[in-house]
Specification:
single chain; about 525 residues; mainly alpha; two-stranded antiparallel sheet
Length: about 525
């Protein structure tokens, strides 16, 4: 009986760095073709001074041209240095690495996090990640590496921690427990667009407050169910526990010594935690003092050129917003050192710095990936392909003759599609607002609810596009903790891992928005879905 041998084709696993390099080349080629075809679009922007629509023409830029090649070569260093995830991740890693090297994170994990039920801890990660968009996108840089480390120390799959933190930030982007940077960036466009219909319309920063508080909790609950019941079982365990064969006599002696060491270690750990807690409270009080205007040497983190306190705190030129990652890093560094001195895990500065260097060296790969991704993002933006596609999608809404629920659902989906190419919410809303807000108002839907549709549409696909700048942190950390280095986690696989989360959360978002519209519940103080 002859055996039939099946010829198996060897699978190729392209490293994410290779894929992003190919995307750069493909983007350049696409820009040349689309520019030759004169691909362009026109969108309207509301002039706040005249309250009139001003058309803006945007065309695809050819990066295969002389000027295009000059941009790519001449701006490579600038693109890398100014790439937002680079600075925020580097700062976050300094704080996390020092806190890890001193033993603070390990002790907290062992004493507190490991005792929490898995579901509750997952909920806390997603909830904190969701509300982190209060300060732009710092959640990616801080929570992804921290969650991976805590999950690893807790005996859970660190890949699950990475996915949990990333999904929480990305698919809950724009919903927080308080008004923040999202309101600051969107409100002006909503206001000027509403004046096209009603010049007396008032849009406040708290217009979406009730909605974002409720959905931040609701989305975190749904996300926890998805992570624990669908994604976690598929990932499985990270590695098997090792077994040690020892003689009975050796075990008895070793256990006695270990018990004594354990008592001594716990004594110093408690002392270290006391030092860390006292230091943390002092540092936090100092930070809070810097956010209070009008006191001696206070208000250091506020932009005092702004009129309202929220603008002083969350405006584009706010020192609190721009320096938030640095503040978290300082907190981690100072409390980590306080723990180290209290627990006597720091013997001298040379050993500490050497230990920090060892732990930091594990993450150096991600900075190579960031360099390549920064070039791709810069090249893609320079082509204007993202703006042109977004303008096309926005203009397509004008030809729809829907109202009520169909109008809301279609607008949600179109904004979600546009977000795959243009992830910046302010730029996207600048294009969509002059069309969406008047359409909604004419359909008896409030402009404040239109702003909710905008932020929800962004959240639906925010984590499912490599064009998102912080996507590099997600895929980078997946590969840092990937045990099989011969098979890197590709972009396709990284997206496949979060597909269940993406699909269920997107459906949940649509149901929440439609349900809120049907019930007519207030979305903010004195603000409702309808006019």
């Amino acid at each position: 009986m002859t055996e039939k041998r099946k010829l198996k084709l060897k699978k190729f696993y392209f490293h994410p760095i290779t894929v992003f390099l190919c995307l750069i080349i493909l983007t350049m080629i696409a820009s040349g073709i689309l520019s030759a075809l004169e691909m362009q679009a026109t969108y309207n922007v509301v002039n706040p001074n005249t309250n009139e629509l001003e058309p803006t023409l945007v065309a695809v830029e050819n990066l295969l041209s002389f000027d295009g090649m000059k941009f790519i070569i001449g701006n490579a260093t600038t693109n890398f240095i100014s790439f937002a995830p680079l600075g925020t991740l580097l700062l976050a890693l300094i704080g996390i690495t020092i806190a890890e090297a001193t033993g603070l994170i390990e002790t907290l994990t062992k004493r507190y996090f490991s005792k929490m039920p898995k579901g509750i801890f997952t909920f806390l990660i997603i909830f904190i990640a969701t509300i982190s968009s209060l300060i732009n996108e710092v959640g990616y840089a801080i929570l992804i590496p921290l969650a991976a480390l805590i999950y690893f120390m807790n005996g859970r799959n660190p890949l699950l921690g990475i996915i949990t933190a990333f999904c929480g930030v990305a698919f809950g982007y724009g919903v927080t427990i308080f008004v923040g940077s999202m309101e600051i960036s969107l409100m002006d466009y909503t206001k000027t667009a509403s004046w096209l219909i009603d010049e007396g319309m008032h849009i406040s920063l708290t217009s979406n407050l009730f909605f974002i508080i409720a959905t931040s909790i609701l989305i975190s609950i749904i996300g926890t169910i998805i992570i624990e019941n669908i994604i976690a079982p598929k990932l499985g365990k990270y590695k098997k526990e090792e077994e040690f064969a020892k003689t009975e006599q050796y075990r008895v002696i070793d256990l006695e010594e270990e018990e004594q060491k354990k008592i001594e270690k716990e004594k110093y750990e408690k002392r270290g935690l006391r030092f860390a807690l006292i230091t943390c409270i002092i540092v936090l009080l100092f930070f809070i003092y810097m956010l209070i205007p009008g006191l001696p040497y206070s208000g250091m983190l506020l932009d005092m050129t702004e009129k309202t306190y929220l603008n002083q705190l969350f405006g584009d030129t706010s020192y609190f917003q721009s320096g938030f990652t640095y503040l978290v890093t300082l907190l981690l560094v100072i409390t980590g050192l306080a723990y180290g001195f209290g627990a006597k895990t720091i013997k001298n500065d040379k050993e500490l710095i050497e230990e920090i260097g060892k732990k930091f060296s594990k993450t150096t790969y991600i900075f190579v990936l960031i360099f390549v991704v920064s070039q791709f993002i810069a090249v893609f933006k320079e082509t204007n392909i993202d703006i042109v596609i977004t303008a096309w999608l926005a203009n397509a809404l004008e030809y729809l003759e829907f109202s009520g629920i169909p109008l809301i659902v279609v607008t949600l989906i179109i904004i979600a599609i546009a977000n795959l190419f243009l992830t910046n919410p302010a730029t996207k809303w600048m294009i969509f607002a002059p069309i969406v807000v008047p359409m909604f108002m004419q359909a008896n839907i409030s402009p404040q609810f239109a702003q909710i549709v905008m932020r929800v549409g962004t959240s639906m696909t925010n984590g499912y596009t490599p064009v998102l700048a912080s996507f590099v942190i997600y895929i980078g950390y997946l590969n840092i903790y990937n045990l099989n280095k011969t098979r890197p986690i590709t972009i396709r696989k990284s997206l496949r891992m979060i597909t269940p989360y993406f699909l269920i959360i997107s459906a949940a978002w649509i149901l929440i928005v439609v349900g809120w519209y049907i019930t007519g519940l207030p979305i903010g103080p004195g603000v409702y879905p309808t006019l």
